[in-house]
Structures are given as structure tokens and as C-alpha cells.
Amino acid sequence: MPLRIGHSVRRLVAGIFAGAVIGAAAWAGSAAPGHHRTITDADRSFWSFQPIRAVAPPAPKDSAWCRNDVDRFILAKLESEHLDPAPEADRVTLIRRATLDLTGLPPTPAEVDAFARDVSPDAYEKLIDRLLASPRYGEHWARHWLDLVRYAESDGFKQDAYRPNAWPYRDYVIRSLNADKPYDRFVQEQIAGDELWPADADAMIATGYLRHGCYEYNNRDVPRSWTQTLTDLTDVTGDVFLGLSMGCARCHDHKFDPILQTDYFRLQAFFAPMLPRNDLPLATAEEKSHYEHAMEGWREKTADIRAKMEPMEKAALASAAKGAIKKFPEDVQAIIHKPASERTPLEEQLAQLAMRQVHDPNENAPIKIAAKDKSRYAELQKELSQYDAFKPKPLINGLFATDVGPVAPPTFVPGHPDQPLEPGVPVVLENSKSEIEIVPTKTSTGRRTALAHWITDPSNPLPARVMVNRVWQYHFGRGLVTTASDFGHLGTPPSHPELLDYLASDFVKQGWSLKKLHRLIMTSAAYRQSALRPAPEIARMNDPEDRLLWRMNTRRLDAEQIRDSMLQVSGELSPDAGGPSVESSVPRRSIYTKLLRNHPDVVLAAFDTADSFASVCTRNVTTTSTQALLMINGDWPLKRAEAFAKRVRSESNSSDTAAWVDTAYRIAYSRFPKPDERTLGIQFLGSEGADDKALTDFCHVLLNSNEFLYAD
């Protein structure tokens, strides 16, 4: 399988090429406010900037194949190119495909049997409903979203420090998807949950979206570090929600799309007042009240002891802070030493960011007590420990964000600080909603609320199109727009523009329900097609890439599906859900294992997991020697094969090697072996004396096969 060049690389190459062809002279002065290119009606006429149309499904010539309106669009396009669809896949293939698609795991033999026995006309529809109702659905589909928002549990850069309080956001995404939270609400919570629903714990956790960027723990150039944070957040927001490569307009007007440099910084202005918060507990009001009540009791019992310890601790903290603050440039030191009441909003942001290097409330580093006080301090610590039973377990602080206050720091194009910009939407999209209403409160600017409402306004032509295209992509292996995060001129036009608008319109009409969208797509005849169809000559001529879907695409499982499927087949997969992440050696679903940017799990990294440094809309799918060597010789796959063999022996409840072969095939492939496969399996096991090693080797072969590693 050929290596796919990442979309960011394609953008870079296109940008370099454009610079060489167009030349700097053609864009002279574009960086200066007031000297931008003019956005014209021709710019606004580009397909993705047009309002979503209410499209009626076409009437293909042979509509008997169609199961719902999706098929009418697909078949009409096929007929226009003199193509016909593939036959429907068999039942085993359908349940395996659907189960892997919605839960990320293969079906169990019992589930396959139940589906085979169900002869009702809506058996397949009931299967889809059951899978959508499974808690495993959220665990699998959350991974797609986490790729997009570059979720990780470490800082990146050289130290790559672990983030022990990142996981609540991951669980929030899983809960939201399982509950079929409307997508517009899902988006609003992540962009402005603290402003819109400050008393809702989930809405506060959702603001973790604003905190997923990399962080350099010892970057003394705090203004530059803050600029990088805002730049990253602006770029990701454009990619994820709008499908626009906003980052290309950071230094100049976009060379291809009608996006101005001022558009970029007007979008960034919505985030300019943001204040990262590491000091807010991850708890409900009731939990906070209970904790404070218990702490008050502990404080009363230990007041005298703590009063003796406090001077020593203050002196130690002051000494440590003095040394840490001296490492910053003089301008940053001046901001830190300035009284908080005298700081500008930007100075307050920079001061708090700098103080993370002085004292982070998430860190529990021991205090370095002065040598003269160490002995006495140790005695007091021992005395204080006698009251540990009365001290409640500390609340975990979350990775949240609020605004720095009701006044926003200024935003301007670099080099033009005398021309501050107000928040605003790209000029080319202004017609989608002419006014952005920003209503400050006593504690917040209200800017992110305004942005969240604009993004999710039904008149905005991009977000619904972008999201339904993503869901289509994850089901078919390719989106109707293949560049899933670029709906601009550098992207590809939709293969079925009318179908894209039909899905987007219906998505909004159905209350932004992702589960209803899944059901519509997956119950179509297009989704049920067989992938095992030789390409007709007309297809090789008219549609060699199968963009028109004259058959289903064969897709390799993603990295997490491979790891989780091996654990399920081996009988080791733990059903435990949620909570702090665990080491990858623990047999839980991959989404619950630690995701470290610079030190990913070996199995996941080999099979092209997202690196979480930037938004990933389409993973690379590579075929490399390291994958084969890992699967054949790696300790982790070998242990799964051993556990799989034990399960086969146990569930076969027989010493008959034929029963072992049947059981192994049923568990791994969801089907019985063909006669020649059974014969070969019996011969292999028999020739090795049917011992544990032979059965392990046999199971190891099944785990290494394409049938196991591919959905079809």
C-alpha cells in the first residue's frame, strides 16, 4: 500500500510552489492592514462558502437498489458514469464491518450467531441501533474527535511532562457521544462552556479543548510562548470546525483562499482574553462543599501545628520563587512583580503563565526547608501526620480555561500595534451572519460565546458540511470531500455535492444528532456493498479510485482497533471504563492508556496512530517492515497469541484439533473456516503434536493475517 503524504505536507508544498509562481510582487503590501485583497462575489461563490441548499434526492433509473435517500444520490451518480453498484455483502461481513465501525471491536461469536438467527426484515437496522446504544460506541468514536483536537496527556517538547488531569476531557467526549449530545451543544461547550454554563461540570471540563496545545515548561520568553498558544488554538479551530486552513493567513493574505490576514487575527481575537486555569477543582458543587466541610474540621484540629510550620514554609517558598523569577527576562520579571491590581489583562495572562514555572498548583514537589529548620520541621510533620485520618483526599484540579476578565487584551496584526482588531468572522463568510453579538459579564468578555454561537448557527455553511463529511469519511475510508479539514481551493471538491448538502441539511434538521447521521449512512445500500468485487473495465476507466462508490472500500483497522481487537480476541480486554489513564501494559482499551506525545505506545505507533502535535483529520496508512517484525517477533503480540490459544482450548471444551480450528476462526474472523482452511489447520496442529506451542503459533498466524487486520 503506498504511503500517503500528510495534508500538512501538501499544504507546505503547495504554498512553496505558489510563492515561486505568483511571486512576492503580486502580493506586495498584503501584510499591512488596509492593503488587503478585496473579497469579491466571485470569492463568495466558491462551493463551500455558499449556503447549504435544500436538495431533493434524485430519481435514478433503477431505484429498486435504493434503501434510503443516500442511495438515490449514489446511484444517480453511478448511472451518469455508466457504472453499477456491487452486490450486498454477506451477513458475517456486515456485522463485522458495522461492529468495527461503531465500536472499534470485532463482534463476538454469540453476537454473530444472534444476527444470523434473526430473520426479521429489520434485523440489520436493529443491529445498528444496538451498536449505537453500546457504551463502546463512544469509546471508539471519541478517538476520532481526539485526533482532530490534538488531545494528548503530555506537554510535548523535550521534557514531555505527563498531564495527570487531562483525562476528564477524554471521558467528557466519550460521555457526550454516548449520550448523542447535539453537535452544536458539543461545540459550544468546548469553545465557551465556562461562559455559557458555568455551573455545569461537564461544560467546564469541555474547555479542556482550549488546553490541548504543547507547553514548554522552561520557556522564559513568556510572550512568545503565549503567542504560540493562541496561534495553535486559532489554527486548530479553523481546521476542526470550519474546514479552513486559517494558518496560511497568519503571515499574509491566503494565496489561494479568500481569507485575509486580518481575518486570521480577528478570529484569534475571540481567544485573546483566554486564561488557562490549573487552580479550579474538578468537582461538583456538592463535592466541593463536602470537601470544604471536612477540611475545616482538619484545620481546626491542626491549627497550632500548622502555625508553627507556616513561617518555615513561607521562607522556603519565597526563596525558591526568588531564584525561579530571576531566570526570566527583565520585562517578564517586571510584570511578575507588578501588583495584580495594576496589571493590564495581557500582563495578567503573562504573569500567570510565568508563575506556572515558579509554582504550579498541579505539582506536589517537596518544599526545600532551610537547613537550620529541617529537624524541627520534620518533627512537626510527624506530629501533623497523626491527623491524616481527618484530612479528606484532595480534589483534582482540572485543565480548564476562563477569561482573564471582562476586558480583553488588544489583538493586532504583527507590526501594527496601533491598529487593534475587534473579533470578527472571515469577510467571505460575513453574509452567513452579519452581526456578531458580544455581551460581556462581570468576569468574562463573552467573546468565545459569540464565536460558539456563530460557528453553530445554521446559516453558517461550513460546520455542518465539515462534520457530516468526517462521519462519512470514517465509514467509507474517504470523505465526499477527501481533504476533510480543507474545504478551500487547496482541497478537493466534493464527489457528490448535492449529497453533501442533503446530509448537512438533514443533520441540522435532526437536531445535530450524530447517531441519526450514523444510522442514515449505515442503513444505506451503498454502505452494505461488498468490497470484494473486481473492478469492471468501465470502472477502471471512469472511476479508478472508487470515489463514486461502485463497491465498498477495503480498509485497514486503525492502530487502536488493532490493539483492542487483539486484546478482545485473546479474552484479556478489561471492560473498565473511564478514569485516570493507565500504562499500555494494562489490558484496557487504548483510549484509556496514557497518550504521551514523545513516547507513544509501541504497537500504536507502528500502525500510524496520531502524534497529537497538530490536528489530524486523516491518518496515514502505511505498510512497513517494522509492522511485520513487531507482529511476528514482538513480545506484546506473542503474549496475546498465548492468551488467545488458552481461550481457544477453554472454549472448545475438547481436545479435538478440528474444534480448536473452528473456535479460533470464529473468534478471530467471526466465521467458520472453509474446508481447505480447516484441513490445513488440523494438519499444522497435528504435525506439531497439538501441544500448547503449536496452538499458540496457529493463533499467532491468525492475528497476523490481513483478514484480522482489515475491516473487509
The strand order across the widest sheet is 1-2
How large a portion of the residues is in β-strands, by DSSP E? under 5%
Please tally the helical runs, counting DSSP H or I stretches of 4 or more residues: 29
Low-confidence stretches: 1-32
Report mean pLDDT, rounded to a whole number: 92
Q: What profile does the largest beta sheet have?
A: 2 strands, antiparallel
Ends apart, CA distance between termini: 15 Å
Rg for CA atoms? 29 Å
What would you call the shape? Answer: globular
Q: Could you give the count of β-strands?
A: 2
Helix content: 40-55%
* SS class: mainly alpha
What do these coordinates show?
It contains 29 helices and two strands. By secondary structure, the protein is mostly helical. Among the domains are: 285-390, no CATH class; 559-709, no CATH class. The chain has a two-stranded antiparallel sheet. Helix 7 packs across helix 8 (167-178), helix 22 (559-570) packs parallel to helix 25 (635-652) and helix 26 (657-669) crosses helix 27 (675-687). The longest helix is centred in the middle third of the chain and has 41 residues, at 285-325. It is globular.
Outline:
The chain is an all-alpha fold. Helices cover 50% and strands 1% of the residues. The chain has a two-stranded antiparallel ribbon with strand order 1-2.
List keywords for this structure.
2 strands; two-stranded antiparallel ribbon; globular; 712 residues; mainly alpha; 1% strand
